[in-house]
Amino acid sequence: MAWNEPGKDDKDPWKNKGGNNQGPPDLDDLFKDLGNKFGGVFGGSNGSSNKSSNSFPSAVIIVALLVALVVYAYSCIYTIKEAERGVKLRFGEYVGLVEPGLSWKWTFVEHIIPVDVQTTRDLPASGFMLTQDENVVRVEMQVQYRVIDARDYIFSVTNADSSLSEALDSALRYVVGHSEMDDVLTSGREQVRQSVWQELEKIIEPYNMGLMVVDVNFKDARPPEEVKDAFDDAISAQEDEIRYIREAEAYARGIEPRARGRVSRMEQEALAYKQQTVLDAEGEVARFTKLLPEYQAAPEVTRERLYLATMEKVYANTSKVMVDVEGGNNMMYIPLDKMINQQNTAPARTSQPMNSATSQQQPSTTMNSASGRSDRFNSGRN
């Protein structure tokens, strides 16, 4: 039954006394009642004047409105850091990007999502994977990336970081699955890293996630613990093989230049000996050619001079001293023992000074006259 049914005035919620049915009470009367109640709570008197009762609720409302306005204005002010860009949403719809600095937004109407676009982030990936030659390896890799488009980073996919992690795991398993175990563990690590990088960029390109891959680091790759010792031995053997090959190549590279150098030196020495022999022969020919006119002019004198020059060369390499004492009775003291010792130690260097000294000390004893010399030389030749 409705409360305003005729004959049921006692159920009127507005307490309409007297049956006048004037409708709901006025708002001023309602605020007056509230003011009287608050006044009683804070020690006010119900018998206060109507003027104070009317001004109190108005003041409370004004103060509350001012406080709410200040709080709302404070909540509308925000700051975007230097390394961030703000994605502005108005009722959930994208309206633009906010640059770093102090800015204003309408609270409860606009929402700002700050996105760091300068920091380089790290994302690891690891797990046991099957290689092309059906071996199991545990690979650990890390990708470094940063945000280049804040809007795509927020709206292109549900979670860009999670999507990148799944793409990295997919690219890593694809590359390892198409590589042999020896390449993954030893020599092909750099190639695996480059292949994972290329495959990762190929996977994330259609999604436009607003991310840029900065680097991909190959941290570790190892076989399972159960077979680790056997693989370590195999790897050591491969490393020894490579080392021995490198040492042999280094030895070959060291021996070959020395051999070529010796060959070149021998060739140069042969050419020099050839030239020296030819020049000596040409010199002898020229010397005899010049001596021929002199010999034809004075045969005896020329033969004597040649004989003297030849004997000088012969005696220069011997330890004998020839002294001509014919025609004189002078006593000479010659330190033969010292001269012999000097000739034994350095015959080429001391033979000529000895002969010159002897000739200086005894100029007259070498030969008395040209006729005497010719007689002695002729007798010596005989």
From TrEMBL:
Q: What is its main location?
A: membrane
Going by the UniProt record, its keywords in alphabetical order are: Hydrolase, Membrane, Protease, Transmembrane, Transmembrane helix
From start to end residue, where is composition biased (Basic and acidic residues)?
Answer: 1-15, 373-382
For region Disordered, the annotated ranges are 1-26, 345-382
User: What InterPro entries does the record point to?
Assistant: Band7/mec-2_domain, Band_7, Band_7/SPFH_dom_sf, HflK, Membrane_HflK_N, Stomatin_HflK_fam
Keyword Methyltransferase part of the UniProt annotation: no
Q: Which domain of life is it from?
A: Bacteria
Molecular function GO terms recorded: peptidase activity
Chain segments annotated as transmembrane: 59-80
A UniProt-annotated Pfam family: Band_7
Q: State any GO BP term from the record.
A: proteolysis
Could you tell me where this protein is found in the cell?
Answer: Membrane
Residue intervals of the Band domain: 75-235
Task: Output compositional bias ranges, type Polar residues.
Answer: 345-372
Query: What membrane topology does the UniProt entry give?
Result: Single-pass membrane protein
Assembly, in brief, is:
HflC and HflK may interact to form a multimeric complex.
State the protein's purpose.
Answer: HflC and HflK could encode or regulate a protease.
Family to which the UniProt record says this protein belongs: Belongs to the band 7/mec-2 family. HflK subfamily.
Q: What is this protein called?
A: Protein HflK
